[in-house]
């Protein structure tokens, strides 16, 4: 196969590219330029797409002896990921930009361009597995599964991929642990074998999401209130808060019992942040929209595992789909589930699909 290896400049994508080449594929390395004003050097483990990262990726490609290109997708990234991120927070939701990037950039824009240029597939350094299994018609279908290394498993952020995208995707690291990947990189002579992993939101290099949003949305002073409407403090914009948040509230009125308080809800229409005690955070009903299925959509009520954070716990649940909408009922309550997050559904290690959380509720079953 002719394969585009997405090379970020990190150790994972470097080893993924080398494994695809070793497997006998015709491999071309591609670094995605996602920033319209890329920094020259990486300043921390946060951030990505610096000129330094592009240089690291090029050096790996040179060592492997494969062609290497930089594809400028900064405008598409800004529109589909960054602007979407800003709009979601302004609307009182908490998005996961990594899922949006996988859906809109790496397995849409990148894959579409690769196919248009005559390539067959895209390979990335994500920690997940693709397995082949027969479908009801006796044909072979590709399924997305969790990685062997659960500490690095990234199947959650790949839960937005559909069957057609999975048919054109390779994840060569899914059967390997991170220490083994670094050891392999060192054995291959890659200078980035010990390069720190990037983390958090790649386009907010200093990690200050609230400050970054304030620069783009402006200060919007408002009130922090309890569930009875009593004013407890002020804030600079409800967009800077998310459900489950405890730190940085700056409440001027302490709770009578001294218990900590958490963000229960943000109300963009009135620019209000509502806080309360931890027990008020518990939910066990989730309604999701923008459903994406990694294979056939489930029929009827199915038993699944539900995960609402990239490295969160999988909770036993039942789920059913109705067009673009998914209803999920958890077997027990969990805290801090915010609209805009994604719920990813599993059957064993297999990813069934995902949806964007539109609403949550607490049932009266308990």
From TrEMBL:
<dbReference type="Pfam" id="PF20259">
    <property type="entry name" value="tRNA_Me_trans_M"/>
</dbReference>
<dbReference type="InterPro" id="IPR014729">
    <property type="entry name" value="Rossmann-like_a/b/a_fold"/>
</dbReference>
<protein>
    <recommendedName>
        <fullName>tRNA-specific 2-thiouridylase MnmA</fullName>
        <ecNumber>2.8.1.13</ecNumber>
    </recommendedName>
</protein>
<dbReference type="GO" id="GO:0005524">
    <property type="term" value="F:ATP binding"/>
</dbReference>
<feature type="domain" description="tRNA-specific 2-thiouridylase MnmA-like C-terminal">
    <location>
        <begin position="284"/>
        <end position="357"/>
    </location>
</feature>
<dbReference type="GO" id="GO:0000049">
    <property type="term" value="F:tRNA binding"/>
</dbReference>
<keyword id="KW-0820">tRNA-binding</keyword>
<dbReference type="GO" id="GO:0005737">
    <property type="term" value="C:cytoplasm"/>
</dbReference>
<feature type="site" description="Interaction with tRNA">
    <location>
        <position position="341"/>
    </location>
</feature>
<keyword id="KW-0963">Cytoplasm</keyword>
<dbReference type="GO" id="GO:0002143">
    <property type="term" value="P:tRNA wobble position uridine thiolation"/>
</dbReference>
<feature type="binding site">
    <location>
        <position position="32"/>
    </location>
    <ligand>
        <name>ATP</name>
    </ligand>
</feature>
<dbReference type="Pfam" id="PF03054">
    <property type="entry name" value="tRNA_Me_trans"/>
</dbReference>
<feature type="active site" description="Nucleophile">
    <location>
        <position position="101"/>
    </location>
</feature>
<keyword id="KW-0694">RNA-binding</keyword>
<dbReference type="InterPro" id="IPR046884">
    <property type="entry name" value="MnmA-like_central"/>
</dbReference>
<keyword id="KW-0808">Transferase</keyword>
<dbReference type="InterPro" id="IPR046885">
    <property type="entry name" value="MnmA-like_C"/>
</dbReference>
<keyword id="KW-1015">Disulfide bond</keyword>
<feature type="active site" description="Cysteine persulfide intermediate">
    <location>
        <position position="202"/>
    </location>
</feature>
<dbReference type="GO" id="GO:0103016">
    <property type="term" value="F:tRNA-uridine 2-sulfurtransferase activity"/>
</dbReference>
<dbReference type="Pfam" id="PF20258">
    <property type="entry name" value="tRNA_Me_trans_C"/>
</dbReference>
<comment type="function">
    <text>Catalyzes the 2-thiolation of uridine at the wobble position (U34) of tRNA, leading to the formation of s(2)U34.</text>
</comment>
<feature type="binding site">
    <location>
        <begin position="6"/>
        <end position="13"/>
    </location>
    <ligand>
        <name>ATP</name>
    </ligand>
</feature>
<feature type="domain" description="tRNA-specific 2-thiouridylase MnmA-like central">
    <location>
        <begin position="212"/>
        <end position="276"/>
    </location>
</feature>
<keyword id="KW-0819">tRNA processing</keyword>
<dbReference type="InterPro" id="IPR023382">
    <property type="entry name" value="MnmA-like_central_sf"/>
</dbReference>
<feature type="binding site">
    <location>
        <position position="125"/>
    </location>
    <ligand>
        <name>ATP</name>
    </ligand>
</feature>
<keyword id="KW-0547">Nucleotide-binding</keyword>
<feature type="site" description="Interaction with tRNA">
    <location>
        <position position="126"/>
    </location>
</feature>
<comment type="similarity">
    <text>Belongs to the MnmA/TRMU family.</text>
</comment>
<feature type="region of interest" description="Interaction with tRNA">
    <location>
        <begin position="152"/>
        <end position="154"/>
    </location>
</feature>
<dbReference type="InterPro" id="IPR004506">
    <property type="entry name" value="MnmA-like"/>
</dbReference>
<keyword id="KW-0067">ATP-binding</keyword>
């Amino acid at each position: 196969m002719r394969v585009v290896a997405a090379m970020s400049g990190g150790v994972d994508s470097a080893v993924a590219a080398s494994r695809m080449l070793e497997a006998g594929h015709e491999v071309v390395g591609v670094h995605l330029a996602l920033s319209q004003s890329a920094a020259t050097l990486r300043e921390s483990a946060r951030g990505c797409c610096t000129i330094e990262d592009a240089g690291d990726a090029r050096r790996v490609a040179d060592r492997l002896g494969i062609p290497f290109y930089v594809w400028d997708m900064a405008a598409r990234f800004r529109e589909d990921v960054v602007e979407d991120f800003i709009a979601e927070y302004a609307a009182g939701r908490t998005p996961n930009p990594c899922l949006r990037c996988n859906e809109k950039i790496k397995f849409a824009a990148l894959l579409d361009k690769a196919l248009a240029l005559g390539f067959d597939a895209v390979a990335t350094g994500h920690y997940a597995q693709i397995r082949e299994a027969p479908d009801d018609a006796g044909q072979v279908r590709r399924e997305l599964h969790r990685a062997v290394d659960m500490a690095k498993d990234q199947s959650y952020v790949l839960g937005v991929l559909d069957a057609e995208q999975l048919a054109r995707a390779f994840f060569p690291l899914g059967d390997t642990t991170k220490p083994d990947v670094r050891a392999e990189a060192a054995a291959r002579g890659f200078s980035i074998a010990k390069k720190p992993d990037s983390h958090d939101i790649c386009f907010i290099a200093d990690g200050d999401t609230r400050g970054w949003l304030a620069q783009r949305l402006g200060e919007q002073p408002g009130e922090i209130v309890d569930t009875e409407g009593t004013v407890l403090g002020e804030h600079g914009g409800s967009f800077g808060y998310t459900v489950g948040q405890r730190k940085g509230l700056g409440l001027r009125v302490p709770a009578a019992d001294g218990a900590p308080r958490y963000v229960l809800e943000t109300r963009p229409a009135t620019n209000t942040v509502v806080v309360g005690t931890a027990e008020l955070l518990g939910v066990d009903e989730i309604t999701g929209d923008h459903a994406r299925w990694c294979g056939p959509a489930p029929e009827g009520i199915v038993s699944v595992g539900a995960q609402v954070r990239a490295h969160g716990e999988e909770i036993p649940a039942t789920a059913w789909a109705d067009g673009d909408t998914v209803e999920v009922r958890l077997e027990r309550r969990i805290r801090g589930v915010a609209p805009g997050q994604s719920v990813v559904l599993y059957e064993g290690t297999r990813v069934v699909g995902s949806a964007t959380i539109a609403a949550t509720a607490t049932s009266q079953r308990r």
